[in-house]
């Protein structure tokens, strides 16, 4: 097992939450450290192009 | 009636938040319907189907926020439409979290981060997950609608770097005692669990907790991980992790039956695992593990929990040993007062896995059922909104939840269906599940209890008796409180069983009893 997964299981989540803020709120309520990313879709919303770029990069 | 739309360009809010705001708007006087969502093609299509003019939506993009309202008069409509900013700001309950614009900034705020929790729309989710993995983060990917090719790519990429991708379509995990997504408050203990189903993990972990033991880790894999396409990548990572985890003494794996190739990959790894392993393949054929296997095989979630507990304590807790005398008395009591036309069970499930499991329980009892999501051997309803004979309905299926909140966070869908079912004079039993825990409805039972009382009353007026049978998945420590939720149901005359499988079994006993008397 890698150190990263081992560390996650041993120490619990230190999370970055991207999306539904309720998930971040509930993590915080349980005492976990969490940073919320105020995510928004790409301006033009061209998802297929974005996926292509992801694959190329 | 009148309708109207207001659009705010380039303003994004998450769907759970928007559904909550929409619900508050729709509860206003003279407002018949309120939809608040992003301007995706799918959402625009829903509005056009609802009768909103397509031309008003032409220029709307997925980056734009739409509020669409149907009201009884112009004034009520305009009052709502002009005040969208007010509705968005008035939503209570947000905590004061550090918030940043992107993952890079998030990592500079939290350099020791070890997990990305991702719930953006499916079309964008794989890209965000990839960014997280590249930065060395494990991923909990709640989003669904991620293409399977991208899932495979992400999981292989993670595996090569010693990371795990829980998901896509992962609802639940409990990591180091902290619930992620839809999880319950359970004590820590010696039992680790790996699950392809969020509600499956919730049921297993709460049953273990209620029996007095605890959970070391509950690791979600996403619903497709045990398919031949994906090939158990995350399940194997989780199995290795739990095998090495000093807190874990026993491991359970919960899933629908794996693909044959996936199974052929998984079994040798289970055989080599140094800890006891219990395998629960919901919907699999009824057969024990092959002789000489290093694992035990069961078919329901409560059996999995019972065996895991037995492997730790050496005995089965009372939760799983139903008292036959009491059950028979209960069945007989529920049968009293039913009229001869009442024959069928209607299951309305918030948890898709509970619907699946109930179908298996029915089939084992020799009862064929209709469903919108039938298992092999059952019948598919031609229209999921119209039950017939014994029907077991997954109310969280896409056909009911596109543009509407999932029944785990909002009871309206199930309430409407409850009334519809109770009108059918052939209905004898309603079978329900309730899910507590973080991120679930604040009061799932309270939202449905008045409707249950009402439909029971209506059937009584017709000269019958409507039996309502339920299970509540949760713990006393959950924000909603298990004991209060059960007491409220019992106060309405609902028969509450300790697990979803037992509730389904009870419904089959009742159905068999009714059949004998007919």
Structure summary, number of beta strands of chain B: 21
Number of helices of chain A: 3
First-to-last CA distance of chain B: 48 Å
- C-alpha end-to-end distance of chain A: 28 Å
Q: Mean pLDDT across all residues of chain B, rounded?
A: 93
Structural class of chain B: alpha/beta
Which strands sit side by side, in order, in the main sheet of chain B?
Answer: 11-10-12-13-14
Low-confidence stretches of chain A: none
Instruction: Estimate percent helicity of chain A.
Output: 40-55%
Name the biggest interface. Answer: A-B, 49 and 67 residues
In total, the number of strands of chain A is 2
> What global shape of chain B is seen?
globular
- Let me know the average pLDDT of chain A: 81
Major β-sheet of chain A, in short? 2 strands, parallel
Which helices and strands appear, and what pairs or packs with what?
The complex is a heterodimer of chains A (57) and B (518).
Chain A: H1 3-11, E1 14-18, H2 21-29, E2 33-37, H3 47-56
Parallel strand pairs in A: 1-2
Chain B: E1 2-8, H1 15-26, E2 31-38, H2 41-49, E3 65-71, H3 74-81, H4 84-89, E4 99-100, H5 103-109, E5 115-118, H6 122-134, E6 138-141, H7 148-160, E7 165-166, E8 172-175, E9 178-181, E10 191-195, H8 198-210, E11 215-220, H9 233-244, E12 250-255, H10 260-272, E13 277-281, E14 295-298, H11 301-313, H12 324-335, E15 344-349, H13 352-364, E16 370-371, E17 379-380, E18 391-394, H14 398-401, H15 412-422, E19 427-435, H16 444-461, E20 467-473, H17 482-491, E21 495-497, H18 500-517
Parallel strand pairs in B: 5-6, 6-7, 10-11, 10-12, 12-13, 13-14, 15-18, 15-19, 16-17, 19-20, 20-21
Antiparallel strand pairs in B: 1-3, 2-3, 8-9
Helix pairs in contact in B: 6-7, 8-11, 12-18, 13-18, 15-16, 16-17
